[in-house]
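EI: anyone free to look at a 332-residue chain?
SC: sure, send it
EI:
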Amino acid sequence: MQHLYNELQKRQVLSIMISRRILRIKIMQLLYAYFQQTEAPLDKFEKELFFSIQKTYDLYHYLLLLIIEIADYANSRIEIAKQKKIPSREDLNPNTKFVNNQVINMLRSNRQLCQYLNNTKLTWVNTPEIIKKLHNHIRMNEYFKEYMEDQETGFEQDKRLVIDIYTHDVVNFEGMYQILEEQSIYWNDEVEFVISMIAKTIKGFRKEDGDEAKLLTLFKNTEDREFAKTLFRKTVLRSNEYSQLIESYTENWDVDRIAFVDFLILEMAITEAVEFTSIPTRVTINEYIEIAKFYSTEKSGIFINGLLDKIFRHLKDEQVIKKAGRGLIGEV
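SC: here you go
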């Protein structure tokens, strides 16, 4: 996986947890399930949508706890070594730079994190083996060795190490995804996204924040919550209408051979373009192209790009798509 830290340097740190893209993905997944159960009540799936979003927030806190558990394991190794019958000089004078990492200690005492973990009872206590394996893997990496050997210490250095551990090791660690999936079916394909959010969180820490350092909030405001609810509900309610519209633009295609996921993505994109006047159509198209690349076929992105461009032009001509707001008036 591409190193997330370099990408973070180019972007402004966000104050919200759930991005619009992850909302779109979760809505697509719920729509897929909904249309497989023709008699399922819509309200049930709306509740499922927001429960799924909350589980992503759980994973965020759960993975923040992970680095604390790794540091605690490292500290326990130090204490055990001191208790040897004949301890070595290194055993008696251990390198404690990692276990005293300022950022990890900030997380350990962070009020928001402690309260959330206490309320949800999230814990790694039943998976000690993954902590041990991950610790042993991390300490063999060159970036970690260089950190431990560097005589200088500093908050920014500590911050960089924690981000490196998440973006180099946690995200790629063998067995991590399986363990998370065993604990929650909602966590099977969200690890990379959540780790990118954790990296943004750590990047925003300041030494003076102490135990009041801010974690990301679930939603920026009620607008994002309404975005999710409206996009899901309106896509369902206008599915037949938009399905017919899509078919009218695919007359040279065998409709039965178009992937069902592609149909869902197209219907969602049309719904978003029509319902949300402040979102530029190019943003909508780009978002669903990226989702299609990951969740559908290799050629889906090109197909969706071309089709949406034609459909959106038609809907603008018909005044069905109207955009308003700064920089959106007269959008073409």
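EI: The radius of gyration is 24 Å.
SC: 👍
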